[in-house]
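Handoff note, outgoing to incoming analyst
You'll be picking up this chain. Sequence as last confirmed:
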Amino acid sequence: MVVPLAARAGVGHRQCFTINRGDEVPPVEACQGLAVPTNFYVNGVFLLNGLYLSIFFLLATFLSGNLYGGILGVLFFFYNHSELTRVMWTPPLRESFAVPFLYLQLMTFIFLIRKRKSGPFWSVLLSIPTVLFMLPWQFSQFVILTQCLALGGLFALNLITVGVFSTLIGGISLGFLSNVLLQFGNAMLLSSYLPSCLVGMWVLLWLQKMGLFGLIHSYPISVALHLVLMVGLAVCFKFLFAHLLGYQDDVSRHQVTCHMGLCVDSAP
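Most recent structure output, in case you need it:
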């Protein structure tokens, strides 16, 4: 789809050559240009990682509140380049396509918290980088899950309002559902801890609006109750979704028998 559109715009091109390899050896065809799949993906991933550095500069500038923070962040990025990315060694990794959108998602997430933005518009705005980050990389769910747990901690400590919390959870939920649809209903993703955590937080938000936590006047007890409910609901919904979808973890499907140092893996 992308190659024909690029060809119409005059950007994508493909030039092929026939290479004669001598007597008794058939000639081969070699092509170059953006319309060649290999070149398309390699150029695309390096373009995204150029965008990654720009977003990283904007994020560092936003977090520090001045231009010097952004410059210092970029300098540290280059100093620790081999620890931050593997794109120069293995360009086609799925994480190379996803990580640039992670920093865009983080910048949107932190902006909404700092500016205390709430409403459907901001939820949709957050969902766009969320789905772009989750779509290429299967391990992105763990990053988003960590983000949700941190958000739940802020809500339990009463550091963000109900409106901001619902906006952020709504944006992440919308991005997650869009990602599931674009992946044609990924059962492994649906039975992971991320959707169960999101549903648990919606239940927690409903309990907050119903005034359950207003009955508790002790701040430490209220915080502890928030955290216990958040973790407990996530675990319960995780097993419920896994049971409804009929999905088992890889570890649960394998039975390992060991005798005198020899282990045999027998999968049903």
